[in-house]
């Protein structure tokens, strides 16, 4: 493949490197130019265009990605159609993701033009979640390179979603003087919720003195009628011969491992009894927050074996979080700087439902809507405001004249909302902890409303998704933490931030800001009802 500028007379059959407008016609990036296209470009004054010229043995980006994806062996994974050189693969069921890392590494070593990225080994996934993506970097790639990758894929299963099974679980909670009944009841509720998310269910509970013999008796009884037994000790594991591991052995079972290099979760015990798995849960498992217990439980419910060696190998990545309420000695938490937030104001749309006029240029109290929205963004606590332009970009930019905003052009605005999100997120400053996505056509959102979202985001230490709401219903704007920025790059078409919020599983904080969260002006009636005056 050859890439670069060519005379317009020689461009027929080549692939456009950039979106291009010729009079009333707009050609998308990666469009293959026909003779008619070349004539239109010449008539519009083009003397050359930047293109990719494919060699006879090249495969186009979509064809190459599809061929590679179709050669892969996998389970419970759906392959989506190719677009812009990318094939995304999604989970067909909830479960635990497993991947052959050596195969992935071998594919990525063939040539930088061909890439595959996946979730981490043993990541829990929901049905419909993306688990892998094949991406061809240039517009085309040599067939020989694709063949080399498909040969690697023929080596066996490359990845899988191991579906959760509807396992039955029995629970033992030991007691000591001073143990509150409310703590035991809460543990039961938290455990039921933890099992429900992966298809397991709690069938029985026994409460026992924190002694070896009664715990052994209860474990043996529950193992007969359940697929798994979980034991919550009233006292933390203090020795490898302590009550829970000793009770497993007294009942005739075997302790596979006591202790794990995951924090929180160090004091987990794993054993077997009558062919059933027994987990001595660490104290942190009484909380719904992720800990080492989740790692072991999810894998077992997904039908995966967990060995002593598996647990020993969990140390890298095993430092999950710091809990300030734990007793010392602990490293003190560093003081957290105030999280910076950039605003990405989307103003690239075509206002297609208006039947002609650009709604962002409609006057509200004598001021263009896009300018009024930008001023409110600038009046908030946000560090910077980025305005994404596209349709009628010069008119929109003129309406913003004199404002201290950063402009991001989206030449692919006709492709849908995702292209504008990508253009805006790409301009967010490296020191920003999050980006608030503000729609340009929401006249009821004030600077104070934006500040309410930013305050909630800072209280979450910059980790949660924060969403405007009205009477309990989700609305806009939405504030995304930096951890979601990479996922934005995979969005396509009219997919927006809502997809990320639903798919990525982060904590979501809804902030009530009133009816402004739900008022947009997509139609003439809505705009005029909100007090706007359309301009031709």
What can you tell me about this protein's structure?
With 536 residues, the chain is an alpha/beta fold. It is 28% helix and 28% strand. The chain has 16 helices and 31 strands. The chain has a 7-stranded mixed sheet with strand order 26-25-22-27-29-28-30, with helices on both faces. A 6-stranded mixed sheet has the order 17-16-18-21-20-19, sandwiched between helices. It has a 4-stranded mixed sheet with strand order 7-15-10-12. Helix 11 (393-399) links the parallel strand 25 and strand 26. Helix 6 (212-225) crosses helix 7. The longest helix is centred in the middle third of the chain and has 16 residues, at 181-196. The model is unreliable at 323-336 (pLDDT under 50).
List descriptors.
six-stranded mixed beta sheet; Molybdopterin-binding/glycosyltransferase family 2 protein; single chain; MoaB/Mog_dom; 28% strand; 536 residues
């Amino acid at each position: 493949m050859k890439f670069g500028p060519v005379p317009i007379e020689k461009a027929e059959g080549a692939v456009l490197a950039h979106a291009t407008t010729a009079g009333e016609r707009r050609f998308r990036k990666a469009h293959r130019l026909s003779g008619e296209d070349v004539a239109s470009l010449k008539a519009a004054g083009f003397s050359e265009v930047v293109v990719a010229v494919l060699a006879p043995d090249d495969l186009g980006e979509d064809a190459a990605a599809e061929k590679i994806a179709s050669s892969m062996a996998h389970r419970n994974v759906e392959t989506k159609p190719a677009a812009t050189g990318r094939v995304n693969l999604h989970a067909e069921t909830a479960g635990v993701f497993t991947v052959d890392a050596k195969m992935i590494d071998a594919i990525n070593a063939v040539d930088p033009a061909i890439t595959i990225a996946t979730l981490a080994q043993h990541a829990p996934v929901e049905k419909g979640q993306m688990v892998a993506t094949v991406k061809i970097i240039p517009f085309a790639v040599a067939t020989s390179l694709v063949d080399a990758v498909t040969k690697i894929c023929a080596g066996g299963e490359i990845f899988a979603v191991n579906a959760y099974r509807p396992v039955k679980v029995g629970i033992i909670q030991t007691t000591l003087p001073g143990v509150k009944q409310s703590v035991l009841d809460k543990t039961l509720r938290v455990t039921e919720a933890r099992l429900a998310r992966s298809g397991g269910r709690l069938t029985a509970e026994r409460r026992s003195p924190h002694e070896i013999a009664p715990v052994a008796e209860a474990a043996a009884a529950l193992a007969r009628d359940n697929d798994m037994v979980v034991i919550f000790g009233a006292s933390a594991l203090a020795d490898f011969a302590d009550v829970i591991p000793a009770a497993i052995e007294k009942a005739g079972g075997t302790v596979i491992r006591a202790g794990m290099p995951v924090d929180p979760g160090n004091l987990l015990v794993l054993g077997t009894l009558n062919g059933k798995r027994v987990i001595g849960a660490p104290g942190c498992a009484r909380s719904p927050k992720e800990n080492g217990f989740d790692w072991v439980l999810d894998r077992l419910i997904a039908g995966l074996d967990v060995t002593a060696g598996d647990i020993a190998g969990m140390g890298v990545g095993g430092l999950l979080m710091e809990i300030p309420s734990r007793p010392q000695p602990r490293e003190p938490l560093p003081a957290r700087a105030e999280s910076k937030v950039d605003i990405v104001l989307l103003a690239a749309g075509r206002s297609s439902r208006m039947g002609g006029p650009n709604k962002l240029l409609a006057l509200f109290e004598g001021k263009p809507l896009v300018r009024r929205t930008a001023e409110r963004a600038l009046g908030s606590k946000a560090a910077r405001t980025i305005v994404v332009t596209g349709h009628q970009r010069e008119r929109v930019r003129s309406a913003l004249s004199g404002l201290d905003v950063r402009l991001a052009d989206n030449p692919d605005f006709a492709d849908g909302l995702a292209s504008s999100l990508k253009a805006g997120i790409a301009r967010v400053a490296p020191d920003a902890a999050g980006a608030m996505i503000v729609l340009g056509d929401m006249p009821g959102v004030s600077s104070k409303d934006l500040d309410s979202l930013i305050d909630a985001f800072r209280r979450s230490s910059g980790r949660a998704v924060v969403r405007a709401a009205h009477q309990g219903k989700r609305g806009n704007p939405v504030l995304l933490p930096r951890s979601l920025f990479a996922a934005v790059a995979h969005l396509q078409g009219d997919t927006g931030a809502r997809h990320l919020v639903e798919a990525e599983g982060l904590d979501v904080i809804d902030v009530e800001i009133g009816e402004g969260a739900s008022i947009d002006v997509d139609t003439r009636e809505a705009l005029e009802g909100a007090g706007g005056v359309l301009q031709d």
